Amino acid sequence: MSELDGYDKDELTGSDQNSGDLSGLTGCRWYTVRTYSGHERKVKEHLDKKIDDAGIRDKIPQVYIPYERFVEVKDGKKKSRVKNAFPGYVLIEAVLDKQTRYLVLDAPSVIGFLGVGDEPTPLRPDEVKRLLEPEQEIERKMVTKAPFEVGGAVKIIDGPFNSLTGVIQEVNAEKMKVKVLINFFGRSTPTEVDFSQVKLVTA
Fold it and tell me: In what residue span(s) does the KOW domain sit (predicted)?
C-alpha cells in the first residue's frame, strides 16, 4: 500500500461532498476506477477539477480514495498515519452516461473501470459501506506497523538487560513486543521486551 502522508482526510474522502452519506443522489451508483499505482491523488484532483469545470457535480458527486489509518512505532513513539487501502483504485459516485464515462476515462493515469468487459460493475451496498465506513470505525481497527524485523540487531535500552545487544527472534506487532536473543552469563537467552525498550543497532 502506498503511503499518503501529508493527506488531509477531507482530500481523500471529499467530505465536503458528504462522502459518509451512502444513500447518494438519485440514479447514482458507486464504481471502481483503475489507475496507475501511486497516481490516485493525481487522478482524484484531475477528476474533481474537470467535474466542477463541466458543471456536472450532480452527475459525479464524489471522487474518493479508500484509506486506512495505522499506528507506526518508531523509537518507542506512536504516530498515526494514513495509507491508501487499495493502491491503483479510486472510487467514484456517479450516474454513468456517455458524458461522465468519457470524462473519467479521458483522465490522465486512468486505466479504466472495474467491470465485465466494457461494462463497469457498480459496487454492492455492503462493499460501499465497508469502504466508506466512518473514521472512528477505522480508528478502532488500527494496525500497528512494527519498526523491527526478525533477524535485526537491537540494543536494549531499559529494564534488567539494559545496554545488552541481541538479535530479534520474534515480533509481535499487536502487543508491541519483540523477543530478543541476548548473550547473558555466557549463554544465549531469549527475553521479551516492549518496542520502547529497544532500539535498532545500525552498522
Answer: 147-174
- CA nearest to 65, candidates 12, 126, 9: 12
| Kind of pairing between the strands at 89-94 and 115-116 | unpaired
Q: Which of 3.40.50.300, 3.40.50.720, 3.30.70.940, 3.40.50.10810 would CATH assign to domain 9-145?
A: 3.30.70.940
Question: Any alpha helices (H) in 87-177, and if so which ranges?
Answer: 98-105, 125-131, 135-140
User: What are the tens digits of pLDDT across the range 43-102?
Assistant: 999 999 999 999 999 999 999 998 877 676 666 677 777 777 778 889 999 999 999 999
Q: C-alpha grid cell for residue 193?
A: 521486551
Q: 24 phi and psi, to 5 degrees? A: 70, 180
Cell numbers that stand for 4 in this block: 499518503
Same fold, 9-145 and 153-200: no
3-state secondary structure of 55: coil
CB 29, CB 123: distance < 8 Å: yes
| 136/139 Cα distance (integer angstroms) | 5
Whole-model pTM?
A: 0.59
For 127, phi and psi rounded to 5 degrees? -70, -40
Q: Per CATH, which fold does 153-200 belong to?
A: SH3 type barrels. (2.30.30)
